[in-house]
Amino acid sequence: MSSWTVDSDNEALGAFVRQQTGASWSVAKRHVGTGKVFVDGARCTDPGTRLAAGQKVELRMNAPRPHDGDTLVPIVWEDAHVVVIDKPSGVSSVPYDDRETGTAMDLLRNTWRTRDRSAGRVPLHVVHRIDKDTSGLLMFAKTKRAELELARQLREHSVRRRYLCVAHGAVSPGRIESRLVRDRGDGLRGAARHPRQGKRAVTHVSVLEVLRAASLCEVRLETGKTHQIRIHLSERGHPLVGERVYIREMVNRGGTPLPASRLLLHAATLGFEHPVDGRAIDLRSSLPDDFANAIRRLGGDVPG
């Protein structure tokens, strides 16, 4: 294994690996793409990832390809009706086409099989999703009864969801409401131009700590629309650190995005009423190491 410490901000991961190893661009890119490169202990497969000064990059030539069949996922809570996992960043919640593998559903089934070979045949019903680049708590139903009841709770906004994120600039706390559409006019999801268009989305933002050129925020979702947190903060002028999509307006204004090896958004808490016996279930996920290290580099304290 080889390891290096990054000296300066905003260097691309592929270029950094190439420089450190003396390999050709194609070889350096292959090392990253096949899961041999880790940033602050977390696998990173995008050679375009921007690094920050102080990050540790490791080249582990013996590391298996990402999402091999033996890849496991932490199970945070489970019974006969519901299972909640701690999804890593970079993993899709569910497959978006028939060819996609290595999703959270796949990792969960792999984990079950290590305990009981027949467990992989347990049905899984999708209740909600979190973005591929978001880490944290993700819930599936194991029975149709549980699926219907949890879907009802989500529709009625009684599921308790809080996220931690790092956003560019000095964020003002408050309530953000808009109506979101699939295309706001520039090809991206965002706020509708007309009040009768789109779906209502409500986000509550509080600021936990002011960082260097950024803010550590706790966000509570009242509704759960696709990319809601990312869109709402970006349209307020505070795109998330590590954002690749909703960053255009900041760049067009001459802003320089802070480097990050991942999107700094984490589903930290999940609360719901048990779909069968009505118990209050409240779960918590600690920040992954790569997220915590990013906060420290920006001069902040990691929430306990």
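[next item in queue]
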Amino acid sequence: MFGPGTLRDFQAAEFGKKALVVAGPSEARLRPLKEVLDRAGEAMTHFVSSGEPTIGLVSNGVLEAQKSGSDFVIGFGGGSAIDAAKAIAAMLTNPGDILEYLEVIGNGKPLVNPPLPYVAIPTTAGTGAEATRNAVLASPAHRVKVSLRSPLMLPRLALVDPELTRDLPPGLTASTGMDALTQLIEAYVCTRANPMTDALCREGLTRASQSLRRAYVDPEDMTARTDMALGSLFSGIALANAGLGAVHGFAAAIGGMYHAPDGAICAALLPHVMEANVRVLRDQQPRSEKLVRYHDIAQWLTGDETAEVEDGIQWVRKTSHALQIAGLRNYGIKPEEIPDICERAQAASSMKANPIAPLTDPDW
């Protein structure tokens, strides 16, 4: 369900009688959903998800759902709340410890039972997590972010109401918007891009490039907010059906090691990864279709049919600067830890779809 005011059409009774609502701590932000549930006579328990979701948070959420007798789950918030709720719904119906099912640090055991009915309602325009089949979780003990992944984890309903993003602070509008933009770019140039995701990426990038700064400057611009919500949704569908690349490969490592928001990491890395990929493609695969795709991206971002690849990279740099997104040095990353970051990034699932193999290519 998509469109301004869509939340008011939510028929919660189709999913159960008592909801575990996974959301941030703000009761004011939660009020629109609570009003809809109250009118429908639906009971709810508010389980607070603050910051990046962790393995421990998911385990606590499972216990809370069992204690409260919840028979369906709603994720209401940014990508963190939506992913936390997605994982809680999955672990409520699948036995054993969550580590058994996690990638990289766990056994990667497949889920066998469908999750509890789950509804994803984003209140940011960035991650597209409402349309993906995985939940990104942090493991503080391992200092890494990994996925719980299964086709069964696709939400029963994704309800995307751009009005819910209206009161986002400018900084959050900027960082989440850059996350969506990065996902659209990486899905378009990745090794598993396909005609369906290509169409979504083109439409998403055209809308996001025209609307991100407008939404940042004027939070009440509902045309810009709607474009960004649609771009975010399209980015989630695209990454779920194609893949990502080195930006998100490094983001998985950096986000697990430092307290840094995913969107800020993506904004910092995106122009450098684009530049490095283009350089290697020109040196090693000068006739590559991926170079044509970077050319497409430059024209969509700038709105200029004569734009060259470098113009697209420069557009990303200028936009990040205009949005005042903090660089990586602000999160305490030390030069001596870069080898460790690279090693962790190499194991990230997103890295595998990058148009070249960055960490094994000496020219990168």
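[queue empty]
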